[in-house]
Amino acid sequence: MTTIPPTLRGLTTLTWLEMKIFVREPMGLSFTVVVPVIVFVGLGRMFGAQLGTTTATGSFLERIPILVAIFIAINAVQSLVAVIAIYRESGILKRLRATPLSPLTILVTQVLIKLILTAVSVALMLLAGRRYYPTGADIPALSFTFALLLSTWSILSLGFIIASLVRTARFAPPVAAMVTYGMLPFCGLFQAIEELPTGVQILAHATPLTPAVSLLSGIWEGNPWSAHLGDVLALTTIFGVCTLVTTRVFRWE
Question: Is 138 helix (H, G, I), strand (E, B) or coil?
Fold first, then answer.
């Protein structure tokens, strides 16, 4: 009979416990899962008929799914930062660290929860969007989901830095919002990066949203993953750098 390693058992138990706690909080669950889907469907009802036409706003309309996907990833970061700040301020992180669970297990649990909720959100978004986004009906849904999970994984590492530096639950969410939403105008979603000033282009390429938008846009349009190896490398590199920084600045109390 195969026995489950204690580390894996602790990870699954803590993940299940944290997931139940999160689901019981209606505000967090609504903004992470429900609100992005409602926005997606609402925009589809308003502009879905124009998606097959060539208009001045056509490029934006085609990017609505990418915009909502990025919102899903950002909401995951917002939730992560808020939870870590609340747990630190209330002493939960300190008590968890005193348990047999390793610090890595505790942090990985939070990442797994956000990735699971991201997958649920994008699945609901794609299902709900079939009626209002006919041009997206034949997209590779599984590949798009994996692309969003990879993007969220990378952006979450930036969230850990924010959660490490902002110690109080009162200021953590607005600081996270300022950082994450502040990257939106420079990530290539609304304007080509090549049209931005040189200094802004350099800054844009250093943020996880830029390769995330490029990867999600390409997969949505049906491009193969081989065409976006640079984006995958960038997202992985940003994750590695942010994780390294987090190990130096993260505080449990």
Answer: coil
Structure token digits, residue 92: 């939960």
Q: How many helices (H) and strands (E) does the chain have?
A: 12, 0
Cα dist from 249 to 112, 167, 243, whole Å = 22, 11, 10
Q: What is the mean pLDDT of the chain?
A: 77
User: Could you give the 3-state DSSP secondary structure of residue 56?
Assistant: coil
Q: Among 180, 169, 152, which Cα is nearest to 72's? A: 152
> What is the DSSP-derived secondary structure letter of residue 33?
I
Residue 164: other Cβ atoms inside 10 A: 19
Question: Among candidates 112, 81, 252, 40, which has minimal Cα distance to 179?
Answer: 81
Say what the pTM is: 0.79
By C-alpha distance, which of 253, 248, 247 is closest to 104? 247
Q: Is the C-alpha dihedral spanning 82, 30, 125, 127 positive or negative?
A: positive
Residue 5 is encoded by which pair of tokens? Answer: 């390693």
Residue 117 has pLDDT above 70, yes or no: yes
Structure tokens at 233: 């490398």
